[in-house]
Fold this protein.
Amino acid sequence: MSKKIAVIGAGISGMSSALLLAEQGHELHIIAKGFSPDITSNRAAAFWFPYHVRNDKRGIGWCRKSFAFYVANCGEATGISMKKIIKAAKANTGDEDSWLDFMQPNTVKIMYNSEAPKGYDIAYETHVPLVETQIFLPWLYKQLEGKKASFKKQELLDLHSITTEYDAVINCSALGARVLCNDHSVIPVRGQVVLLEPGFPNHIFLDNQTPSYIVPRKDATIVGGTYEENVYDEKTEKEGLDDILRRAYSVFEGLDKRKIIGNWAGLRPYRPQVRLEREADTNIIHNYGHGGSGYTLAFGCAEDVVKLVEEL
Ligand SMILES: Cc1cc2nc3c(=O)[nH]c(=O)nc-3n(C[C@H](O)[C@H](O)[C@H](O)COP(=O)(O)OP(=O)(O)OC[C@H]3O[C@@H](n4cnc5c(N)ncnc54)[C@H](O)[C@@H]3O)c2cc1C
């Protein structure tokens, strides 16, 4: 039976939930304080990689389902493509290969010593989805418009105030949950990036430890990053950007010749565990706190949201 559903939040968590719910024939109403391009979901590098979720046993399923969604939806129109990724590490750095559990068997090649990038002892090579947020978020909005979803710009102050209007309220408000749910376990983790002119390199590079990453989008090469807990300011700082470039230049010869075309910062909605559950005795379903893995988790989490709605 078709339900009337409100989704709070228009980032990747809200939009993936809304899309899968609309595909089930439900009537969707998206309410958000901010829409693309003015939200964190636009500032992600947005390649598939499990980050912040490896201590949660639900994570493997969520990540794999999202991977499958992106593979099935690769294309110019969606802005999704499969890209080679080189993940590099120094020796004896602890939890360096637990992410392999998230990959399908026999899809990752190990590169030792001389094969690894400059300055690294070991590296892994595989292919993962890259989601170009500047193309994919507008595409998602368009899909939802095609399914007659409504969009309303509004800051909600109380989730419970709208529960009688809808059969279900899906809370995908990310950092907004600090106020909406009085949940102070969600904190901002700022990430800054530099944008270089596009064209080089043509694969993703990742070193989680520093953290450094390079992501080849069509409109820019994204060079990251930083991991700054409890920083609320979405501005970039020269010192952070210089450090990002210094690290990237030391790995990729010739990168310092590329023109700098911009920068940005975004606030990852970190929570020790993603909150994905129905709030007891209500029709509210929470789906927030995806940290640095919002894209990696989105469509797996959205499948669980659909299941929880079916149980209402
Ligand atoms: C620099 C950087 C790089 C990243 N790289 C990657 C990556 O490579 N791979 C990956 O998987 N993830 C990455 N991430 C993480 C990813 O961006 C986030 O996990 C994801 O965007 C979170 O999506 P969301 O929809 O939950 O939140 P958001 O995009 O923040 O959306 C929240 C929505 O809720 C709305 N909202 C909040 N409060 C209210 C309210 N009271 N009333 C109404 N609306 C409200 C907001 O306006 C917004 O629409 C990166 C993040 C950063 C900053």
In short: The chain is about 25% helix and 30% strand. The longest helix spans residues 294-310. The chain has a mean pLDDT of 95.
